[in-house]
């Protein structure tokens, strides 16, 4: 059964970038910071593509943000997604508002499955999938992972970790939780959020990048969706965490032992 | 006056210790608002656990029903939201565990509430509470205001002490309506069994990374000698060397033990964010330039396969004397 999959691609600071807070605490310093697709969303895009390769269907990638988010949509299209939707909005967003916007896109697109990263690595909230599932009254399978490791043969063969039932009506999802792995069946349409070990995302090929330029991307102004865009999680102030006083080196194990026993008193 | 509802986490009738830290956070909030702390306990055959929890001076709302045997957000969220309305909760929270992070945002959505994840502390003044939380993998601390009437949150357990026993509170039974057919069904739980303490609750954590080349034996020996939990970097987990739930980091477990030993871990930002709250950090790594050394209280540039067994012998000898 072909699947229509809506997948998210948020533009975030590159996780390798050094993040510094502006002296007045109103934001972070963006000079010299690179941007890319949220790594958890990349995993979601990869999973969507694997499901499409196995079952057929369509992968629609959505991003919400300023015009520059088009770069992340093109990146997903270059990986193999079919078309894009850019919801244009300047200014702060939070999971409450983002899930309300995705709720509108769901109404419009009527996908069988929404795949999202479990969190974005800028605000680290880990909420959008759960909010969206409740807003739509659908089942949620958060922290999708799989039993096999990322070095396994199934992963080399790019098998999806999320498995469609034979009747095409539900998905079997292995969820990474504290103390082990939980398996659930979730009826379609479903909301699935992706954890780190679900897959290794592919790199876009050169032909993929060329093709992506011609794929359709619809632009929607967020204000036209009839959603209250005022953030409900209002960031008042940012600051840098207290610095740790580290950096002391010891010469050998006897000195380490002596320090731990005598100075730190932790042994 | 606003009451506070904390959702307890249990499995098989055993309370997750993280719940006690969330209750402590709830008590801080209730102190600010002049309200009371209520605890929602959901599951099947909860008998003794309800009484145990009430011993922390809170009112326990026990929803004991066959439909709640296995945790599913779709089954739990309506019950928690129902209790929250019943007690007039202005704040609804839980510990920031996989359970809390899965459930609380769904409850929040149901109540039209905004939510703050991994809360480290509370700011503002009096009943006007703001939430302190990490962003960008802990590289930034944010103070956020939740502008909705009901405010939802999950707290990082290591940032609050465990609640202390108090005057026994009340236990109230909650009638659970049949939810009908749910969109999600529990299939199985594969537990990673361990004799060692839980990572987030251990006094000592011994963690290994790429430098172990997959051989965690020396680290496990050190851990068992110290009664420690074993942790790992993302690289070691991705390689399939150790189970997923050993991962320490912003996207794994956040730990803050008295002693954290990082062996063969270079110290990616992601990993450091998960352990830099530890009281004492020891780094053992062959590469003297590894970023982990900047954070470590005691850094030892050495091969872990030589240094760790030597440390084990030292500790054994010290114990014998």
Q: What does this molecule look like?
A:
The complex is a heterodimer of chains A (267) and B (321). With 267 residues, chain A is α/β, with parallel strands linked by helices. Chain A has one domain (3-263): Rossmann fold (3-Layer(aba) Sandwich), CATH 3.40.50.620. Chain A is 27% helix and 28% strand. Chain A is built from 7 helices and 14 strands. Chain A has helices at 39-55, 70-79, 95-109, 128-136, 153-156, 206-212, 253-263; strands spanning 3-8, 11-13, 35-37, 57-65, 83-88, 113-117, 139-145, 163-164, 170-177, 180-187, 190-194, 217-221, 233-239, 249-250. In chain A, strands 1, 4, 5, 6, 7, 8, 9, 10, 11 and 12 form a 10-stranded mixed beta sheet that branches. In chain A, α2 links the parallel β4 (57-65) and β5 (83-88). The longest helix of chain A is centred in the N-terminal third of the chain and has 17 residues, at 39-55. Chain A is globular and about 65 Å long. Chain B has 321 residues and is α/β, with parallel strands linked by helices. Chain B has 2 domains: 3-173, HUPs (Rossmann fold), CATH 3.40.50.620; 199-320, TPP-binding domain (Rossmann fold). In chain B, 29% of the residues lie in helices and 30% in strands. Chain B has helices spanning 18-33, 47-54, 73-86, 98-111, 217-226, 234-238, 269-273, 292-295, 304-320, and strands at residues 3-7, 10-11, 14-15, 37-43, 59-64, 89-95, 114-119, 121-125, 128-135, 140-146, 151-155, 171-173, 184-191, 204-208, 229-232, 259-263, 280-285, 298-301. Chain B has a 7-stranded parallel beta sheet, with helices on both faces. In chain B, strands 15-14-16-17-18 form a 5-stranded parallel beta sheet. A 3-stranded antiparallel beta sheet of chain B has the order 8-9-10, covered by helices on one side. In chain B, β9 (128-135) and β10 (140-146) form a beta hairpin. Chains A and B meet through α3, α4, β7, β9 and β10 of A and α3, α4, β7, β9 and β10 of B. β14 of chain A pairs parallel with β18 of chain B, so a sheet runs across the interface.
């Amino acid at each position: 059964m072909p699947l229509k999959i809506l997948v998210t691609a948020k533009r975030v600071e590159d996780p390798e970038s050094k993040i510094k807070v502006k002296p007045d605490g109103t934001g972070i310093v963006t000079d010299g910071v690179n941007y890319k697709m949220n790594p958890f969303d990349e995993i979601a895009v990869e999973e969507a593509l694997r499901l499409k390769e196995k079952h057929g269907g369509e992968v629609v990638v959505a991003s919400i943000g300023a015009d520059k988010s088009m770069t992340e949509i093109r990146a997903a299209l270059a990986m193999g997604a079919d078309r894009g939707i850019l919801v244009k909005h300047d200014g702060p967003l939070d999971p409450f508002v983002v899930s309300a916007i995705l709720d509108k896109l769901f109404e419009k697109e009527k996908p069988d499955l929404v795949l999202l990263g479990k969190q974005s690595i800028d605000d680290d909230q880990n909420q959008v999938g759960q909010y969206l599932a409740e807003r739509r009254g659908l089942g949620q399978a958060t922290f999708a992972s799989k039993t096999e490791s990322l070095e396994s043969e199934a992963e080399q063969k790019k098998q999806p970790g999320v498995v469609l039932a034979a009747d095409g009506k539900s998905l079997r999802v292995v969820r990474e939780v504290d103390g082990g792995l939980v398996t659930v069946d979730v009826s379609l349409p479903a909301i699935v959020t992706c954890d780190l070990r679900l897959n290794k995302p592919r790199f876009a090929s050169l032909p993929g990048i060329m093709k992506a330029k011609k794929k359709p991307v619809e632009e929607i102004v967020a204000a036209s969706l009839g959603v209250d865009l005022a953030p409900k999680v209002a960031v008042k102030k940012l600051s840098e965490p207290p610095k740790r006083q580290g950096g002391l080196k010891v010469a050998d194990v006897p000195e380490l032992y002596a320090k731990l026993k005598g100075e730190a008193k932790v042994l | 006056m606003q009451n506070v509802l904390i959702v307890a986490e249990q499995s098989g009738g055993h309370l997750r210790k993280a719940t006690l830290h969330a209750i402590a956070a709830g008590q801080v909030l209730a102190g600010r608002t002049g309200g009371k702390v209520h605890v929602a306990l959901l599951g099947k055959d909860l008998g003794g656990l309800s009484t145990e929890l009430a011993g922390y001076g809170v009112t326990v709302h026990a929803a004991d029903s066959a439909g709640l045997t296995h945790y599913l957000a779709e089954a739990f969220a309506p019950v928690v939201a129902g209790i929250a309305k019943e007690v007039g909760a202005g704040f609804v929270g839980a510990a920031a565990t996989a359970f809390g992070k899965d459930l609380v945002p769904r409850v929040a959505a149901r109540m039209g509430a905004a939510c703050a994840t991994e809360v480290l502390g509370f700011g503002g003044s009096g009943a006007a509470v703001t939430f302190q939380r990490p962003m960008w993998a802990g590289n930034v601390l944010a103070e956020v205001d939740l502008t909705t009437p009901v405010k939802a949150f999950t707290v990082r357990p290591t940032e609050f002490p465990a609640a202390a026993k108090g005057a026994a509170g009340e236990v109230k039974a909650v009638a659970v309506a049949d939810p009908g057919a749910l969109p999600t069904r529990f299939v199985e739980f594969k537990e990673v069994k361990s004799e060692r303490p839980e990572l987030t609750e251990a006094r000592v954590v011994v963690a290994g990374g790429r430098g172990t080349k997959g051989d965690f034996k020396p680290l496990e020996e050190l851990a068992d000698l110290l009664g420690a939990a074993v942790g790992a970097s993302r690289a070691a987990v991705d390689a399939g060397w150790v189970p997923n739930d050993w991962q320490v980091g912003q996207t794994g477990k956040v730990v803050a033990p008295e002693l954290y030993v990082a062996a063969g871990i270079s110290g990616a930002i992601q990993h450091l964010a998960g352990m830099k709250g530890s009281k004492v950090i020891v780094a053992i790594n062959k590469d003297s330039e590894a970023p982990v050394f900047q954070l470590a209280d005691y850094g030892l540039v050495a091969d872990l396969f030589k240094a760790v067994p030597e440390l084990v012998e030292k500790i054994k000898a010290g114990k014998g004397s």
